[in-house]
Design goal:
Layout: H1 17-21, H2 29-42, H3 45-50, E1 67-81, E2 84-95, E3 98-111, E4 114-122
Antiparallel strand pairs: 1-2, 2-3, 3-4
The structure holds zinc ion.
Amino acid sequence: MFEPCPCGSGKTYLACCGRLHSGTPARDAEELMRSRYSAFARGMTAYLQKSWAAETRPLTLALDPAQVWTGLEIERHEATGPDTAIVRFTATWRSGAQTGRMTETSRFRREGAGWVYIDGMID
Ligand SMILES: [Zn+2]
């Protein structure tokens, strides 16, 4: 169980996003963002739903099993208020012979002991 974390932090999965996946609240928006990327990479739809703001959360979430997430780069993490923040990132993926990348600026807010994802603007 010493596999590297999918989010590319350089830590092991258990010492990084695995903690959040097993219930530890995110300390900041970037940590939550990383844990959501890792959840996409591992097909953890329940965690994605749980870390999504109630008003924007999709009722159902189906991930494409052929799409493999291959990398995450955080470009910016910035507070936009006492309890809100944005994170800009680029994620890369592969699906069969195809590869691609998406850049998104996501909005997050503090909720309870942790943070939730609100929505994002894709470039
Ligand atoms: Zn991680």
